[in-house]
Amino acid sequence: MSQAAQRQYRTEVEEFLSRLELRARKLVALADNMDKTTDKMDVTGYRPFREEVDNFKALSLVISERLKRLEKHPKKEELEGQFHKLQVLMLRLVIKTSLKFFFVMSAKEHLPLGAREMFQSELRTLYEAERMISDPRYISQLDETAREDLDTAKSILEEIIEKAPALLNFGARKKKRRQ
To answer: Is there a contact between 16 and 59 (Cβ–Cβ < 8 Å)?
Structure first.
C-alpha cells in the first residue's frame, strides 16, 4: 500500500479516535447521571445510555477496520493503544452501569411490556463484554472485580428475563373455533 494511502488511513483513525473519545465522555456523563438517580432508574432512563453504547461499538468497528489497514505505520502501536484504552473504559462503564440497572430492575414487581426482548439484547451485550474481557489486550487492564461484576450482572439479568413480559404477538394466527 502506498504511503499516501497509509497517511490517509492514519488521519482517518486519528479523527475517528477523537470522535470515539467524545462518545466515551458522553458515556461517562450518562453513567454518572444514572448513578446519581439510581433510585428513580427505569427502562426509559437507561435507553440513552444503551444507545450511546451502541454508537460507541459501531464507531469502534469502523476504527478497528481502519487500524487493520495500517500496515507498518510508525504510529500504529500508539493509535492501537489509544483505541484499547477507550475500549477498556467502555467495558468498565457497561459492566458497572448495567449491574446497577439490572439490580434496580430485578427489585421491581412489574416490568413494562417488551422488557424481555430488551433484556435479551442486554444479555448479548454482556456476552460480548465477556468475550472482550478474555482478550489478552484487555485482560491485563481489568481487575478481577470486573469479571465478578459481569458474572453477577448476567445472573441478575437471566432472572429478570424469566419474569419479564414479552411483547404481544399480534401476528399470531388465531385458532379456528371448533363447531
So the answer is: yes
DSSP 100-145: HHHHHHHH-S---TTHHHHHHHHHHHHHHHHHHHTSHHHHTTS-HH
Domain of 26, in residue numbers: 3-163
Instruction: Count the domains in the chain.
Output: 1
**Would you say residue 28 lies in a domain?**
yes
Domain presence at residue 177: no
Q: What is the pLDDT of residues 107-148, one digit of tens each?
A: 888 888 888 888 888 888 888 888 888 888 887 788 888 889
Distances (CA, A) of 159 to 116, 122, 149, 163: 11, 13, 15, 7
173: pLDDT confidence band, cut at 50, 70 and 90?
low
In a domain, 153, yes or no: yes
78 domain-assigned: yes
pLDDT (tens digit per residue) in 51-66: 999 999 999 999 999 9
- The amino acid that residue 11 corresponds to is T
Tell me how far apart the alpha carbons of residues 139 and 159 are, in angstroms, rounded to a whole number. 27
Q: What does R_g of the chain's alpha carbons equal in angstroms?
A: 20
Q: Could you tell me if 37 and 45 are in contact, meaning their C-beta atoms sit under 8 angstroms apart?
A: yes
- C-alpha grid cell, residue 137: 489486550
Q: Are 137 and 84 in contact (CB under 8 A)?
A: yes
